[in-house]
Design brief:
Chain C: This is Carbohydrate ABC transporter permease. Chain C: Pfam families: BPD_transp_1. The complex is a heteropentamer, with two copies of chain A (about 375 residues), one copy of chain B (about 400 residues), one copy of chain C (about 300 residues) and one copy of chain D (about 325 residues). Chain B is α/β, with parallel strands linked by helices. Chain B is built from 18 helices and 15 strands. In chain B, the strands form five sheets. A five-stranded mixed β-sheet of chain B has the order 2-1-3-14-6. Chain B has a four-stranded mixed β-sheet with strand order 8-11-7-12, with helices on both faces. With about 300 residues, chain C is mainly α. Chain C has two domains: about 70 residues, no CATH class; about 210 residues, Orthogonal Bundle (MetI-like fold), CATH 1.10.3720.10. In chain C, strands 1-2 form a two-stranded antiparallel ribbon. The two termini of chain C are about 25 Å apart. Chain D has about 325 residues and is mostly helical. In chain D, about 75% of the residues lie in helices and about 0% in strands. The longest helix of chain D has about 35 residues. The chains are: A alpha+beta (about 375), B alpha/beta (about 400), C mainly alpha (about 300), D mainly alpha (about 325). Chains in contact: A-C, A-D, A-E, B-C, B-D, C-D, C-E, D-E. Chains C and E meet through loops of C and loops of E. The complex binds adenosine-5'-triphosphate (ATP) (2 copies) and magnesium ion (2 copies). The site of one magnesium ion has 3 residues of chain A, from helix 1.
Chain lengths: ~375, ~400, ~300, ~325, ~375
């Protein structure tokens, strides 16, 4: 159990800078997710924390103690890999036991034939075995202990990899996209389990993924990373409702947020597709885009957003209607209840109006707080 | 003491050596003989010993081809035997054929004692000769050609001349049989009519006997199988033919054919025992000497005659121990009768000696595969090539 | 693909069968000859496995037996002669000892090197790999003499060491293993590092077990090459017959001129070839897989 | 006690782990090659007390002596016969075997047997099989001559040809060739044995390559309208096997350049040097004739040639892969 | 353009029967999805239609004509594979051209060097090229025509595979999980494209997936397949709202439907966790389970469904609360608006009441229509 702190981490491969002065603190026991598009440097950051790679600049502290001089094995961190990285020749029990064997047994005691008969090896061996069993019970893989990884399903392997990480009660867990090799169903199930694990063990989790739903549902806080920088760090709600950057807004949320062109009129009111929204920028900046989540739009007889229906996706629980809006980069998605009537049909024109929070961005993509125009006028 | 011994042609001499050691051990129970892996042939024997000299793992006694001794003497690997001979009170150097002893004498010192000696002879399947209407054994190559034509006409394989025996032995035989030494003044001595005649004699056999370019072993097999009428090669295989003969046909050996008449001389084939020990221990040296002495003289030599087609180098063996043996084995006596003709088996001088041997072999093979007709031309080319190497 | 006519299957079998006959011909000759008496060999009679009419053993006669004592079946005579002429068991044992030690040493040297070339980043790695590729081209025949002199200076000729040492580094093995290791995920190596293993431990505890299929393929290549090697043992083993490997034993029959030990010689050949064939039959399936996995395609 | 950065630790481990192999490669392979390169400028012979520098004499000999011209011819002939034939047969066998529903394992095993067998043992067997009179090959051919119908068919006499007009007809009349003793046939015989011995190896590599082609691709081809086996081969199999082919060709070429055992055991480079391949020449010069300098010069030439060949092939692969 | 009709298809591998008398008709131009859990025989069915495999029994008709005797190459169907099955050695243009080259050029014209100079080859070649370009334009991959598949992203490969299928205007498309190798974002985007393609081309699509969201959003009709049988065939709405079988109900919908124990009381009323729901079975059968979609449940002070909160997943647009309910097989998921207050917290007890459609199943898992109890009494 420990805090993790990264200060001013930079890293380049060749001439391309992958990490640019990254600062990040993970509280003790916190579940922090690092999300970002592929190639943005998430794995690199994790590997630097783990001690598998070194930073060009900056420092890593684990539990408040600088860890720069420690090798990976001595940092008391456990890592779970995307490909699970299980030892194919060892049984499940053997895989889980490795970290303990490497730490608790002397080199001599680890010898193949001779080792087990050395003094102390017996009792240590039993300890390890007991610990492995306990972990396996916790993860519900006790019945698989004698199998080899090749004989397991993806989800089971995933749990074995977790077990191997858990078995030695590390100061923190580092997980690098541990769910991305699972199919949709399995992923759904496992992500709940991992979040529960974090709560149960109370250990710090640093979790890397490029799947924002995963991050949203599991994390205490999320750091959104792009191009080697952390764009925003906050709770899932903060990121969803109050993204600091248009890139964050675009990245978080599924289906993606609708970005619509907006202007500020002479009186400072924000215009959405030419219609006054009755809002203005709190600090009076100029606004270039408005972000509206699909659920923040609803069909309305004469809403400001209008376009031909391109697609109607009925998920049973919701209906997503995509309309082509002039001036918007991509089709605008509107969420409707399955009971909506009349049901929008492809080809007809649909009008929609904002019914939820609007997020405003300036031309540089920075979020601009909005306030009700009247209220502001009163102030 | 233990002494290590190496010899060539295991398939011929294994049994010989076994019997010799049996006898030797009875006489010298305190000396143990260990045989090295046998050398494949005389070149291999020399090369192996040269390599072993570098590695300092030389055997104490090594049996080397008569024409390969010079190399070992030049490089200081072989030790002179004179000191040991001098100690012997009852050692009869005269027991050895003079000619043979001369083959192992360099700068007045004796470096080897001949162990088994061979001369080329003719092998005949008399049944086949008779069937083809050939009477008696041919004495000259012309007569061989004559006989061949009859046998070929009879639809059978006529003859095989073992032209590629190591060291151009049979080419040297063809030259010696005309009284011409192969090497004179360090050069190939074939720029003379006899040189051409020697090549012609080979071509005659190839042409008139329809001789095929098979290996000596294959020819031997055909002869033993009764499918080949005549074979000209070393006397060494007499025992082999005796042992592997298929069918019941008259096997007779005869003197080696000459060119235009009986041979004037023939090169001595075979090998000699050399002392190659690097040991400083007089006891080991003495033991090695005892073995050399035993193997090359008296009873040891007699075993050679009994188990192989070779001639024992020792008069004592030939005349005393083996008198009635030859009466019973006339095929083996042919070579003995040729002993007076014994002459040097030349090694080509210099580092390129073996390369020269191989070059000559290549030219001879041209003849054998039927690719050469102009013998003087071939001779000129060959002499030029070889002398180039011998420079 | 879907509806294959059995005609095409039949044709394929036919072609392959003809090929198989040609391929097996020498093996047939070898085994058949090892069953025959000398006269059957000379006259090419006796059918596939000889008539097995009793023959008189020559070596038995030489030891002074009578014709009656020495009558045996040709097959018995050939194989008995094969083992009597040379201590074949001893040679085979040498062969096993030599090939096994060569293989183990090769693995010992090649595995870490291949791991370094495949998974570790260090300056000069490409040059190191180029060196391996160059060494792949050097046949021992071409450098036998310098190598011999080297061993001679160390006083190692005529010893097991001479048979084994020159082969301890196998460029082919390094190459093969490297190709295989390239397919092992980097994560596995990192996981091992996190688990507290050093690079050395990773080689033996993680990479070695993972590489078993590729090692098997390599084992076959290595063992075949060295079990069958005739050239090198001949060069370095000049003195001590006790160090002979099987092909040298075979050579005992291949004197310059005799063709008369064909029966025993073929018996010896059969005896020498058999272990490899059996080993291959056992490992056959995993061998092809191993080659495929080693990325040799 | 500060640990070095992981990258440096890794590099150190890399050096350490590669070191044994490096040392051994240098001592056992590179050093002898270097010695050979040095000796190639000398007239060193085993057992001689010293030696002289002869400059490039040894190399100029290689150009001037006819034996070395024959060596080049024989070596090239062998490589050019054996490489395409064993690669082609290996591919053919692999394709045929893959197409079988039953018996795959059997053929695989049979065709790989020669690769396993001791070359020396098999060379002796081949020598016996090719024996001009006792060998099974010529006996078999003669037996065919004895069957009238077959003889007529094979010799072309059914078409009115003279008995000796065809190869087979001539064989029946004059006897079949001395496979190893006739300069016109020896290189072919040796090559045949080389192919016999080596094509199983190509086959295994091709089988591995074939198993790497996803079956879905064949289904896609089928859906795309590929009907015949030949089209399937052209569209899919052959291009997908390109990397295998390059590897197989490289390995086979190098192995062909290294032919030695069969030559040594069967022909000794003859008849009239028609099978005088380069590795045998090296052996003959350096070991048999004790002309170490010449042998060393040949070694250097050999390595240069083989390296050139493999570099060229490497280039080809790179171009293929990166095109 | 053609109908597809499968009649009584059966297929066994060894002793296990994979398909059991499957009947299925696809209308001309229809987009029909085949969904089902892994291993249920979807691919096998598709491959039988394609002609890559043969059925043990039953027949396949394409455009009303029996196709049993035709080999795959002659069926005029195009198939898109899960792994795309692009020819790695051909460029994108080459890949797309293959089906045309195989059909429009003679064997001689296809020869490597000689082919192009044969009479007619030139003009045919140009035709093909033009067609390839047209298809590439339609799929927006015209700029990639010279690349090889190895240099493309998953989504781009996917489009090339589609292009190869489209280029020759087949009678019908068969798609076998074409999206499963794409990442979440790409999958989202591509599925809309494929549906649009179907509308644009008007060609029949038979689409295999095990992802029900994919099927829901794209299809005209969906066939749910399990254990070699088609359990239900209907529109997405039908399957979501009126599943015929408890297995279908479980399979369709994400998060999955909540199955709660139910009883029928003496008066025929359906009891949910002991509480009267005011409904009864229309035909008077006994009811064993009630299915309630997450959105059909809402927190309510004294709802019949009660349990401790196990997990709270905030997706930003919705919050899913999982509660452990006595008697339910798995945690019950309740969908809340992100604005719900008080926000449920892990560990506290939550009550929920049905607010939407209830789906009743008898003990055998068959759906039982429900009617309002009062209404029924009046009838
Ligand atoms: N050892 C290396 N040498 C050179 N470049 C590297 C190395 N490791 C990573 N990179 C590059 O650094 C960038 C960031 O890589 P990283 O693996 O950290 O991305 P990521 O965010 O984890 O992406 P993903 O989500 O795809 O896993 C990539 O562009 C990658 O190509
Ligand atoms: N050639 C075959 N031989 C034996 N069994 C097979 C074969 N092909 C498929 N099967 C079996 O048939 C069953 C159905 O396979 P199929 O591929 O049709 O499933 P699927 O529904 O497509 O599954 P997935 O969603 O995983 O692709 C599986 O259990 C599979 O193991
Ligand atoms: Mg990553
Ligand atoms: Mg499938």
């Amino acid at each position: 159990m420990a805090t993790l702190a990264l200060r001013g981490l930079s890293k380049s491969f060749g001439t391309t800078q992958i990490l640019k002065q990254v600062d990040l603190s993970v509280a003790d026991g916190e579940f922090l997710s690092l999300v970002g598009p592929s190639g943005c440097g998430k794995s690199t950051l994790l590997r630097i924390v783990a001690g598998l790679e070194s930073a060009d600049e900056g420092s890593v502290e684990i539990g408040g103690v600088p860890a720069g001089h420690l090798r990976a094995a001595d940092r008391d961190l456990a890592m779970v890999f995307q490909s699970y990285a299980l030892y194919p020749h060892l049984t499940v029990a053997g895989n889980i036991a490795v970290p303990l064997r490497m730490r608790r047994l002397t080199a001599a005691q680890r010898l193949p034939l001779l080792g087990p008969v050395l003094p102390g090896a017996r009792s240590r061996g039993r300890e390890i075995e007991a610990r492995v069993r306990a972990v396996a019970d916790m993860l519900d893989i006790a019945h698989l202990l004698d199998r080899r990884p090749g004989q397991l399903s993806g989800g089971q392997r995933q749990r074995v990899a977790l077990g191997r990480a858990m078995v030695r009660e590390p100061a923190a867990f580092l997980l690098d996209e541990p769910l991305s090799n699972l199919d949709a169903k399995m992923r759904l199930q496992t992500r709940t389990e991992i979040a529960a694990l974090n709560r149960r063990l109370g250990t710090t989790f640093l979790y890397v993924t490029h799947d924002q739903i995963e991050a949203m549902t599991m994390s205490d806080r999320i750091a959104v990373m792009m191009d080697g920088e952390i764009l925003q760090l906050g709770t899932p709600e903060e990121l969803y409702d109050r993204p600091a950057d248009i890139r964050v807004a675009r990245f978080i949320g599924s289906p993606a947020i609708n970005i619509l062109p907006a202007e500020t009129d002479a009186s400072g009111h924000v215009l959405l597709c030419g219609h006054d929204t009755g809002m203005r920028a709190a600090a009076g900046g100029r606004i270039a885009h408005l972000g509206l989540r699909p659920e923040a739009l609803a069909p309305a007889p004469h809403g400001p957003v209008a376009g031909r229906v391109r697609a109607v996706e009925n998920l049973g629980s919701d209906i997503y209607v995509q309309i082509g809006v002039l001036g918007a980069e991509s089709p605008v998605t509107v969420r409707c209840a399955p009971t909506v009537s009349p049901r929008p049909r492809i080809g007809e024109t649909l009008f929609a109006a904002p019914v939820g929070r609007m997020i405003a961005f300036d031309a540089a993509g920075k979020a601009v707080p909005l306030v009700r125009a009247e209220v502001a006028a009163h102030v | 003491v233990e002494i290590q011994v190496g010899y060539a042609y295991g398939s011929i001499f294994d049994e010989t050596m076994r019997q010799i050691v049996e006898g030797f051990s009875a006489a010298h129970p305190d000396i143990e003989i260990t045989f090295r892996a046998s050398y494949e042939n005389y070149e291999d024997a020399t090369n192996t010993v040269l390599r072993e000299a570098v590695a300092d793992t030389l055997p104490d006694v090594s049996f080397q081809g008569l024409n390969r001794q010079a190399v070992l003497v030049e490089r200081g690997i072989a030790r002179p035997l004179d000191p040991f001979i001098a100690q012997e009170t009852d050692f009869d150097a005269d027991g050895y054929h003079r000619a043979m002893l001369k083959l192992s004498t360099f700068d007045g010192g004796i470096y080897g004692l001949p162990f088994s000696v061979s001369t080329p002879i003719g092998y005949y399947n008399m049944d086949m000769l008779e069937a083809a209407g050939v009477e008696g054994r041919p004495e000259t190559w012309d007569e061989v050609a004559e006989a061949c034509r009859k046998i070929v006409a009879n639809g059978q394989d006529a003859a095989f001349l073992h032209w590629n025996i190591t060291g151009n032995w049979l080419l040297q035989a063809a030259l010696w049989s005309q009284g011409v030494p192969t090497i004179r003044d360090g050069r190939l001595n074939m720029e003379n009519p006899q040189g051409v005649a020697a090549l012609e004699s080979i071509r005659t056999v190839v042409r008139d006997c329809r001789m095929k370019n098979v290996s000596g072993g294959d020819a031997l097999k055909s002869f033993a199988a009764g499918e080949l009428a005549m074979m000209f090669t070393t006397t060494a295989y007499v025992a082999t033919v005796d042992g592997t003969r298929v069918g019941d046909w008259a096997f007779v050996t005869g003197p080696y054919p000459g060119i235009g008449g009986a041979p004037k001389a023939l090169p001595a084939g075979g090998n000699a025992a050399m002392l190659t020990s690097t040991s400083q221990d007089p006891e080991v040296l003495e033991a090695a000497w005892q073995f050399i002495k035993y193997a090359t003289s008296g009873e040891g030599a007699a075993v050679v005659a009994r188990t192989t087609g070779y001639i024992p180098p020792n008069k004592v063996a030939n005349e005393v121990l083996l008198a009635d043996f030859y009466a019973r084995n006339p095929n083996k006596e042919t070579a003995v009768k040729q002993l007076p003709l014994l002459a040097e088996w030349f090694a080509y001088p210099g580092d390129n000696g073996l390369a020269a041997t191989r070059t000559i072999e290549d030219y001879l093979e041209e003849i054998v595969v039927g690719g050469a007709d102009d013998m003087p031309g071939l001779r000129d080319e060959m002499v030029a090539d070889v002398n180039d190497l011998l420079n | 693909m879907i509806r294959q006519f059995s005609a095409s299957q039949t044709l394929a079998h036919l072609v392959l069968l003809i090929g198989a006959v040609v391929v097996l011909l020498p093996f047939y000759v070898m085994v058949a000859t090892s069953f025959k008496s000398p006269s059957e060999i000379m006259t090419a009679t006796g059918g596939a496995f000889g008539a097995q009419a009793p023959v008189v053993s020559r070596s038995c006669l030489a030891r002074g037996g009578t014709d009656a004592d020495c009558a045996t079946l040709p097959v018995v005579e050939n194989y008995r002669e094969a083992f009597a002429k040379a201590p074949l068991w001893r040679y085979m044992l040498n062969g096993v000892a030599v090939t096994v030690s060569i293989f183990l040493l090769q693995v010992l040297v090649a595995l870490p090197a291949a791991y370094a070339l495949a998974k570790l980043r260090f300056w000069g790695r490409n040059a190191a790999f180029a060196l391996v590729m160059f060494c792949l081209l050097i046949p021992v025949h071409a450098i036998a003499l310098p190598l011999y002199v080297l061993l001679a200076r160390l006083g190692l000729t005529d010893s097991y060491a001479a048979l084994v040492l020159p082969w301890t580094v196998s460029a082919f093995g390094i190459f093969l293993m490297r190709q295989f290791f390239l397919t092992v995920p980097d994560d596995l190596v990192d996981a091992a590092r996190m688990d507290g293993m050093g690079e050395f431990a990773i080689v033996w505890r993680v990479m070695l077990p993972a590489a078993i299929p590729a090692l098997l393929a390599f084992a076959i290549f290595s063992v075949v090459a060295h079990w069958n090697d005739y050239f090198w043992p001949r060069v370095v083993i000049t003195g001590n017959r006790d160090l002979f490997t099987p092909p040298l034993g075979l050579r005992e029959f291949k004197g310059d001129l005799d063709g008369n030990f064909y029966g025993p010689m073929m018996a010896t050949a059969t005896v020498i070839v058999t272990p490899l064939v059996v080993a291959f039959l056992l490992a056959q399936r995993r061998f092809v897989d191993g080659i495929a996995m080693a990325g040799m395609k | 006690m500060s640990e070095p950065r992981p990258e440096i630790r890794q590099a150190r481990a890399g050096y350490l782990l590669f070191l044994p192999a490096l040392v051994l490669m240098i001592v056992l392979l590179i050093l002898p090659v270097a010695i050979a390169a040095v000796l190639s400028a000398s007239d060193y012979a085993l057992g001689n007390p010293g030696f002289d520098w002869v400059g490039t004499d040894n190399y100029s000999q290689l150009l001037s002596r006819s034996a070395y011209r024959k060596m080049m011819v024989a070596t090239l002939a062998y490589v050019l016969i054996v490489t395409p034939a064993s690669v082609g047969l290996g591919l053919g066998a692999a394709l045929l075997i893959r197409s079988l529903r039953v018996g795959q394992a059997l053929y695989k095993t049979v065709y790989f047997l020669p690769v396993m067998a001791s070359l020396l043992a098999m060379a002796i067997v081949w020598e016996f099989a090719l024996h001009p009179t006792l060998g099974i090959v010529n006996r078999g051919l003669e037996a065919l001559c004895g069957v009238d119908g077959l003889r007529a068919a094979l010799s072309g006499s059914w078409a009115g040809l003279a008995p000796g007009a065809t190869w087979f007809g001539r064989g029946c009349v004059q006897g079949f060739p001395l496979w190893l003793g006739d300069p016109d046939y020896a290189i072919w015989s040796i090559s045949f044995i080389g192919i016999w011995q080596g094509f199983g190896f190509s086959m295994v590599l091709y089988l591995a390559g074939l198993s790497g082609i996803p079956p879905e691709l064949y289904h896609a081809a089928e859906m795309d309208g590929v009907r015949s086996g030949w089209e399937r081969f052209r569209l899919l199999t052959w291009p997908m096997l390109a990397p295998t082919t390059v590897f197989v060709v490289t390995v086979t070429t190098i192995r062909s350049f290294q032919v030695f055992d069969t030559v040594e055991a069967l022909t000794d480079g003859g008849p009239v040097r028609s099978t005088y391949t380069i590795l045998f020449a090296i052996y003959e010069k350096a070991i048999r004739q004790n002309l170490v300098g010449v042998g060393a010069a040949l070694t250097v030439v050999f390595l240069a040639v083989v390296m050139a060949v493999s570099l060229i092939q490497r280039r080809l692969v790179e171009r293929k892969v990166h095109a």
